[in-house]
Design goal:
Chain A: It is found in: Cell outer membrane. Chain A: Its main location: membrane. The structure holds 2 protein chains of 2 kinds. Chain A is mainly beta. Chain A has 3 domains: 210 residues, Carboxypeptidase-like, regulatory domain (Immunoglobulin-like), CATH 2.60.40.1120; 127 residues, Beta Complex (Ferric Hydroxamate Uptake Protein, Chain A, domain 1), CATH 2.170.130; 711 residues, TonB-dependent receptor, beta-barrel domain (Maltoporin, Chain A, Beta Barrel), CATH 2.40.170.20. Chain A is 10% helix and 45% strand. In chain A, the strands form 14 sheets. Chain A has a 22-stranded antiparallel barrel. In chain A, helix 10 runs antiparallel to helix 12. The longest helix of chain A is centred in the N-terminal third of the chain and has 16 residues. The two termini of chain A are 24 Å apart. The longest helix of chain B has 28 residues. Classes of the chains: A mainly beta, B mainly alpha. Chains A and B meet through strand 27, strand 28, strand 29, strand 30 and strand 31 of A and helix 1, helix 2, strand 1, helix 3 and helix 4 of B. Strand 36 of chain A pairs antiparallel with strand 1 of chain B.
Chain lengths: 1104, 320
């Protein structure tokens, strides 16, 4: 009985909010009529007529079964009705009817069940009072049931249809339905978007339980591509999709961390573990030497500047990674590094959905380095003194008293919490859909004092103005605040992280008077460089605040159904402010303050026309053409000062500085103009063709070289649509793809081609005077970098797509590389940029999805593996380019080389050859000239992995879900720069790994890991520092429980989930330092950097 | 061309008409003016449109000082560590037993080399462009060219004594990429020629304290002749400076006299100064030498110090 009311409600709701879910049901809502109601004549009237009057008078609608109201008469009270529902209920109750108010405009009229009268065996179809063609079929059997998804959650809105009739209904909010069927052996058809349709014979059962399986083919699934969407089945290019469930599976401070290991061909390189630290994303390898290698991020169609740090994971609906030229060429000069399309949440017609999610995490250092304790430290330094024949620093008695000493890692690192919450509301009707998401992420870092906070508010509204016009609006506003504690690198402990390892365990953080210990003064042999790390933690502040706004609006116009004209505009705005303050308590500081601000604005205008037409069923054409304008304006302002009377001023009173700095301001603007077009043609759904073209004009390039053209073409053949495969029971999908295209890279900053003079200052007397001179980079005559890519791939689905394999092979050649070319230093322009050189990336990507077990226990697997080989094909005159110069005092050298035939990032150094009989390191004299010189350097390691991989496993049983996600990298080397000062800079009083104490050269131990402990020991950039950086980590493991809400009879909660998870709980690696996922100075270089943490998370997700 | 505000349709007007209008307008506005939008207009000055007035040429001449001032401390510290009385500490210890360039000291040597040539390039820009200035008189041209040549000579004088024969870059070849190494006599020939012109055209009184004068050029000529062992010419030039009777030694009797009468932040100039680089207590404008030498505990210098160079081998560790 209750069900019939719910049914009616649902039917109405669905009719109101969407078309097409209900087939064969003739439904309409009462419509306002033209006649003016006459309130004065309150004679009894037909109920139907009165309702109709009320509709027009009170601007409301009534929905009811026609049979309920016919032949009924009521009398309205005089005067205006203040509470329509109440009044009507009073009037209708005697007639065994009741009124339900759905919203301010919609009322349902239902029969009153508690009257005890058995309900008439009428069909539960709701008929409009003014409908004339309704056929009422006398039904004779009532079926109840519940439709659930694979996890057992009730599915609302599933269409239930009696086969061969127009009878039907849809499930209500908890997935249940009631339907009267004409015959006991009727067959019901259940269908719902995204799920396979099912036919279920009733067979006389009054109660049915139906579990819907997701549509295995999901071929009608739509994916977002540049300037449009296509059906997944129509794709000709190479694309990886990561969906919201995966993005939200565990909290990350950057949404891109969530795609690591999820998409083949995509390498996410964590630079450091600092909260809010940057990420490097490489799609199909590294193309460019001079320019960036980051993909283009496009948020809701807006080509965004830089990383999408403004979004919280909860804002995102899906991420599509475009990889081959057929997919990326439509982005022309910005497509060479791949394109990442981010689609934020969008409202859907139907009942308003509210989702609340919160997580709380605890982060810890993955492992502590095993360093010497106080006693060992003193003994090692005494040993150095003995070896260098100077007086010993400590007596045996002192050594005996040192004990463990201070653990400086405990002084610097902490357990740190992270919390995230989001509340999202979305819904709408057929005309207007909306989505509002507010979210927060707060992360404290595992280094004391560091944190990251992000507040984001995303809004999206789509409104259909008429059949011909639609307007879309989206807005992301966010506030980022970062407190950085990332004083990294350095040597002899002159950075915070260096000091956390290098500080002497026999020193203490504080002196007896409560002031900070000055480590270099505790013992005379300790290097003057070393800092007490508490200086950085407590006395140096580096705060970055940013307000980011991304707003997009578009107007769509359909003059004819096939044609859509879209005019859109957008604004990206980013205001940054960085405050640095070093207090007077910091060693040797009288207070130093600096503030720098920058304002970035990008305006976008996009105008496209798209056309979609099917001719004679066989030929399907879709095309898009357009032109776009985007400009990029950056202005900046900064000021500084040194010498403050008090720390009270911080950075908010620069004018109080004893020595004010010079204010700086800057301006840079660039413009990109583009024309683009794409044509998709499909014949018989079997043969697919895509051609695209874009021409970009950029202000950044030299006159006459500003415009570049970027064409692409792709062909695909869906063999599974051919007759010989259509009948196959094994192959459910088989598609072969091939593509070719050109893309570009902008690679240079504005004004690089101009011969500008920059200003500076010099001193005469005691005053400042302005200077004007060129920089040391000679402007060049420059054009685009161009990347040519060919891609072959196939998609293969087996056994109803229970096994789905996607494979791609590609070759990418980047030519006209913008390269820094060294000039003779005596020219004073020490470098210039030229279009020289070529780089190649080729590789293979495999992605395999498997629905291993389906049913009550469900197990899905998704694995991917990507191989990429990178090599420098040519350089300017074949000349090597040395890179990554470091100076850690004990050695100063270049760590990498660019050389023809070798990969980008190639580690370059000396090979060791054991020790001399004095315990000094011997190096191989590779050129046999009797001396060790730079000519003896060779290839000592490669930071590029042989392959990267990810494996995700989702298991569900009843209300439980278990997810395990593994991610790894194999065959990549790490240049451990941290180890250079920390294991070889002897005689400076630095603390070192215990291994150095235990395993160094002595006449008795000539094959030790470390050389003689002596000031005279010298180091070179040698293979000693290269370590295997391969790792496999359990990126995430999560156990979730979906609360059985239906048992609690909490109608207002739709779903609720509690979960516990762990991130990076287990890491298998041989890397000796904190963590292998570090790329602080370019790929594979670890240089006293902020380590990545492991995390334990608890979360709750509730839907209303 | 400015982009259209695409949602500017006024209420009351037909949206449809507005959309048609906007579409047409945006097509019309965007298409023609493209190339203009792609012209870069930085808010700075460029080589091609500078050096036209005395003020512009003076700021270009000032730019010769910056690299020389910033490298001066390093130059002194490195050379001093090579001597028998000076010792580098820490990263500078390697200069004590200097035996030619190696990968450890190469970067520091490159930085000094680059600074000298940066000064030379900036001097060449003045020497080459100032005479073509549209709004500058002959006297000013002569004065600034003389100042540039004085500083160019000073740079080559350091270069030739550090590295022997070096590539000579003058206003006639400063944009050429490949220039061969010249011999030591060729470098000195240029130095003498430059100083001769400086001696002729530099003013008697400097416009600012820290700019060279005629007597500064004569003094340097004396030093160059002395280096070349051309003693009579050295004597004559030195004598001209002495006879001008402008300079005298500052009497020093105690340590504080060095700090307050000869150097020190509050001292603008002294009768001892013939040509000095000037530094100030401004961020980025201080004398790096103080940082290299100073032990932070002296509290004499508000930027701390590295104490990376010392001259007393017996007590290498500073005691407060």
């Amino acid at each position: 009985m209750k069900n019939s009311y719910k049914l009616a409600l649902w039917v109405c709701a669905i009719v109101l909010f969407s078309h097409g879910h209900i087939q064969g049901q003739e439904l309409a809502l009462s419509k306002p009529e033209a006649n003016t109601p006459q309130n004065k004549s309150q004679a009894a009237q037909s109920l139907q007529k009165i309702l109709s009057q009320l509709e027009s008078q009170y601007k409301v609608n009534f929905a009811y079964e026609e049979a309920l109201v016919t032949d009924k008469v009521i009398q309205l009270p005089a005067g205006r009705i203040t509470n329509l529902a109440k009044t009507l209920n009073e009037l209708l109750n005697p007639l065994n009817l009741k009124v339900e108010k759905i919203n301010n405009n919609l009322f349902l009229i239902l029969s009153q069940p508690e009257k005890g009268k058995p309900q008439s065996k009428t069909n539960t179809q709701v008929s409009p009072h003014n409908s004339v063609n309704t056929t009422i079929i006398a039904a004779d059997f009532s079926v109840n049931g519940k439709v659930t998804d694979e996890s057992g959650t009730g599915l609302p809105g599933v269409s239930v249809l009696v086969k061969g009739t127009t009878l039907g209904t849809t499930t209500n909010s908890d997935g249940t339905f009631t339907l009267s069927v004409p015959q006991r052996n009727s067959i019901l058809i259940f269908s719902f978007i995204g799920f396979s349709s099912q036919e279920v014979p009733v067979n006389g059962q009054a109660n049915l339980s139906i579990q819907m399986a997701p549509d295995a083919k999901a071929l009608d699934e739509v994916v977002v591509v540049g300037y449009g969407v296509v059906k997944k089945s129509d794709l000709t290019g190479s694309l990886s999709q990561v969906k919201t469930q995966e993005i939200r599976s565990f909290p990350t401070n950057n949404v891109l961390q969530a795609i690591s290991g999820r998409a083949s061909g995509v390498q996410v390189l964590q630079t450091t573990g600092a909260p809010g630290a940057g990420l490097n994303v490489r799609i199909r390898g590294t193309n460019s030497i001079q320019g960036g290698n980051e993909p283009l991020y496009v948020i809701d169609g807006f080509p965004f500047s830089g990383n999408p740090t403004n979004l919280n994971n909860a804002d995102i609906e899906s991420i599509e990674v475009l990889k081959d030229a057929s997919a990326t060429a439509i982005y022309g000069s910005r497509g060479a590094n791949g394109v990442v399309l981010i689609t934020t949440k969008q409202g859907k017609a139907g009942q308003t959905r509210v989702e609340y999610e919160t997580t709380y995490s605890m982060q810890t250092l993955r492992k502590k380095l095993e360093l010497m304790n106080g006693q060992e430290y003193a003994m090692l330094n005494n040993l150095q003194a003995a070896n260098d024949k100077i007086a010993l620093y400590f007596t045996q008695e002192q050594i005996n008293n040192f004990g463990e000493g201070t653990d400086w890692q405990d002084v610097v690192f902490q357990k740190a919490p992270m919390a995230s919450s989001s509340l999202s509301v979305n819904g709408g009707n057929e005309k207007t859909q909306f989505s509002v998401t507010g979210s927060y992420l707060g992360q404290e870092g595992i280094i004391k004092g560091s944190d990251y906070n992000r507040y984001a508010l995303s809004t999206k509204i789509n409104h259909k103005i008429s059949d011909k016009f639609q307007i879309n609006f989206s807005n992301n506003a966010s506030r980022l605040a970062t407190e950085r504690k990332d004083s990294e690198g350095g040597s002899r402990g002159n950075s915070m992280i260096g000091a956390a390892i290098s500080a002497a365990p026999i020193s203490t953080p504080y002196r007896e008077d409560g002031s900070y210990s000055i480590l270099s003064q505790d013992y005379p042999f300790v290097a003057v460089d070393i800092r007490n790390p508490l200086n950085y933690i407590n006395e140096q502040f580096n705060t970055i605040k940013a307000n980011v706004l991304l707003t997009n609006a578009s107007l769509l116009f359909n003059p004819i159904p096939e044609l859509t004209v879209k005019i859109s505009g957008g604004i990206e705005n980013r205001d940054d402010r960085t405050d640095n303050y070093t207090t007077r308590k910091f060693l040797n500081s009288e207070g130093r303050a600096s503030v720098s601000t920058s304002q970035f604005t990008s305006l976008l205008s996009e105008n496209t026309i798209s056309y979609l037409k099917t001719l004679n069923e066989d030929h399907q054409i879709s095309a898009v053409a357009g032109f776009t304008y985007q400009d990029f304006l950056t202005t900046s302002l900064s000021g500084s000062g040194t010498g403050f009377l008090s720390d009270a001023f911080e950075t908010y009173n620069l004018e109080a500085a004893a020595t004010p700095g010079i204010a700086n301001s800057g301006y840079a603007k660039s413009v990109l103009l583009s024309y683009l077009g794409r044509l998709n043609y499909s014949f018989n759904n079997k043969y697919l063709l895509t051609v695209s073209f874009r021409t970009d004009g950029s202000s950044r390039y030299s006159d006459g070289k500003k415009w570049g053209s970027f064409p692409s073409a792709a062909l695909a053949w869906r063999a599974s649509e051919e007759e010989f495969l259509k009948s196959s029971n094994i192959f459910s999908d088989l598609k072969v793809r091939a593509s070719w295209g050109l893309t570009g890279s902008q690679a240079i900053s504005p004004y690089t081609t101009l011969n500008q003079l920059s200003s500076g200052n010099t001193v005469f007397g005691n005053s400042l005077y302005t200077t004007f001179a060129p920089s040391t980079v000679l402007p060049g005559n420059l054009k685009w970098e161009t990347t040519e890519q060919i891609n072959f791939g196939f998609d293969l689905g087996i056994l109803e797509n229970r096994l789905y394999l996607t494979t791609d092979y590609y070759i990418k050649n980047t030519r006209d590389l913008l390269n820094t070319v060294r000039l003779p230093n005596s020219l004073s322009f020490t470098t210039t940029i030229r279009n020289v050189g070529e780089v190649q990336n080729k590789g293979l990507e495999l992605g395999l999805e498997a629905k291993a077990i389906q049913g009550k226990f469900n197990w899905d697997l998704f694995g991917n593996i990507s191989f990429n080989r990178n090599k420098v094909v040519s350089l300017n005159d074949g000349k090597d380019i040395l890179g990554t110069s470091i100076n850690v005092l004990v050695l100063s050298d270049n760590l990498t080389i660019l050389r023809e035939g070798r990969p980008i990032g190639q580690f370059w150094g000396y090979q060791e050859d054991g020790y001399t009989d004095k315990g000094q390191i011997k190096f191989k004299d590779l050129n046999n000239d009797g001396a060790i010189s730079a000519d003896d350097k060779t290839y000592i390691g490669n930071p590029n992995p042989k392959f990267i991989y990810g494996l995700n496993s989702n298991m569900s049983f009843n209300n439980f879900e278990l997810t395990a996600f593994f991610q790894g990298s194999y065959g990549n080397d790490i240049f451990n720069v941290s180890a250079i000062p920390s294991t070889l800079d002897y005689g400076q009083g630095l603390n070192m790994p215990r291994e150095v104490f235990q395993n160094h050269w002595t006449p008795e131990n000539p094959n030790a890991k470390y050389p003689i402990i002596s000031r005279t020991t010298s180091a070179r950039a040698s293979d000693r520092w290269i370590e295997d950086g391969s790792y496999l980590r359990l990126r995430n493991i999560q156990l979730a429980y979906n609360l059985p809400i239906e048992k609690f009879s909490l109608g207002w909660i739709k779903n609720a989930q509690v979960s516990v998870s762990g991130q990076n709980l287990v890491t298998w690696t041989k890397y000796s330092w904190w963590d292998p996922e570090i790329n602080s100075r370019g790929a594979g270089i670890d240089y006293y950097s902020y380590p990545i943490s492991k995390v334990v998370t608890a979360g709750i997700r509730i839907g209303f | 061309m400015k982009m259209l505000n695409i949602i500017s349709a006024k209420p009351g007007r037909s949206l449809k008409r507005a959309a048609y209008g906007l579409l047409t307008l945006s097509v019309l506005f965007t298409l023609p003016a493209c190339e203009d939008e792609l012209q870069e207009a930085p808010k700075t000055v460029a080589v091609e449109n500078f050096y036209n007035t005395a003020e512009e040429v003076e700021t270009a001449t000032n730019a010769i000082y910056s690299p020389l001032r910033s490298t001066r401390a390093e130059q002194i510290a490195v050379l001093d560590a090579h001597t028998d009385w000076g010792y580098g500490r820490g990263s500078r210890a390697q200069y004590n037993d200097f035996a030619g360039l190696n990968s450890g000291n190469m970067n520091a040597a490159t930085a000094r080399w680059n600074s000298f040539y940066q000064a030379i390039r900036n001097a060449n820009l003045v020497i080459s462009n100032a005479p073509n200035g549209k709004n500058i008189n002959e006297a000013d041209i002569a004065k600034y060219v003389a100042e540039a040549k004085f500083l160019r000579a000073l740079s080559y004088f350091d270069l030739v004594r550090n590295w022997g024969g070096v590539p000579i870059r003058t206003e006639s070849n400063y944009t050429e990429i490949g220039v061969k190494r010249s011999t030591v006599p060729e470098v000195y020939e240029l130095i003498l020629a430059d100083l001769a012109e400086a001696e002729k055209n530099l003013p008697d009184e400097p416009k600012h304290v820290g700019r060279p004068t005629k007597l500064a050029a004569k003094t340097m000529l004396a030093e160059v002749y002395l280096t070349l062992k051309r003693y009579p010419e050295a004597r004559d030039k030195a004598n001209e400076v002495i006879k001008a009777n402008k300079y005298s030694l500052v009497p020093v009797t105690k340590k504080e006299d060095f700090q307050l009468k000869l150097f020190g932040p509050d001292l603008l100039t002294t009768p001892e100064e013939i040509f000095y680089f000037k530094y100030a207590r401004q961020v980025g404008q201080g004398n790096f030498m103080l940082w290299i030498l100073n032990h932070p505990n002296t509290k004499l210098f508000n930027f701390g110090g590295a104490y990376a160079h010392y001259s007393d081998q017996n007590t290498p560790f500073y005691k407060a």
